[in-house]
Specification:
This protein is an alpha/beta fold and 167 residues long. It has a domain of 103 residues: Immunoglobulin-like (Sandwich). 33% of the residues lie in helices and 22% in strands. The protein is built from four helices and eight strands, in the order H-E-H-E-E-E-H-E-E-E-E-H. The strands form two sheets. The protein has a five-stranded mixed beta sheet with strand order 2-8-7-4-5. The chain is elongated. The relative contact order is 0.20.
Length: 167
């Protein structure tokens, strides 16, 4: 009776751990706060900020700024390069703008308030499809995936329990 109960417990534990691992790695979309603690403001090098990040379709950019002083406009490449807003795709001036990168390719954002884009308030990011992103664990957010060592530990632990029980 005890052996049967232990075997059942191990089976439930193994299935639970596998489900947790699957669910955690599926939630790998990342939320990026543009400019980190500096937010969406003048005096921030947004090219450098974006340079060490890998953006994937499904990721979200959060722009934090003073409402009434700044805004966020998603624009065409041409408007981005010339700091104009003649072809705005979307815009917001709420003070906290969340933009989900819903399609692969280049996305351009500027502050549409005159003068600020030319002072550096512009950001261009490339969103890659999930299949084209490097398959390294480092490209996932810490909150969105398990580290390889953790996965190996969990697999080893479950295997050891199964061997001890005698499956």
């Amino acid at each position: 009776m005890i052996t049967m109960m232990t075997a059942y417990t191990c089976e439930v534990l193994a299935i639970t751990l596998l489900l947790i691992m699957c669910c955690v790695t599926w939630g790998s979309a990342t939320i990026y706060t543009v400019g980190d603690s500096n937010g969406w403001n003048t005096g921030v090098d947004y090219s450098s900020w974006a340079n060490d990040k890998t953006f994937v379709v499904g990721d979200t950019l959060v722009f934090n700024y003073a409402s009434g002083l700044h805004n966020v406009a998603e624009v065409t490449t041409s408007d981005y390069e010339s700091c104009t807003t003649s072809n705005v795709i979307n815009s917001d001036n709420s003070g906290t703008t969340r933009v989900e990168l819903s399609s692969p390719g280049r996305h351009h954002f500027i502050c549409g308030v005159p003068g600020y884009c030319s002072q550096g308030m512009k950001l261009a990011v490339t969103a890659e499809t999930a299949s084209s992103t490097p398959s390294t664990w480092n490209s996932y957010s810490a909150a969105g995936a398990l580290a390889p060592a953790t996965v190996l530990f969990l697999i080893s632990f479950v295997s050891l329990i199964i061997k001890l029980v005698g499956f």
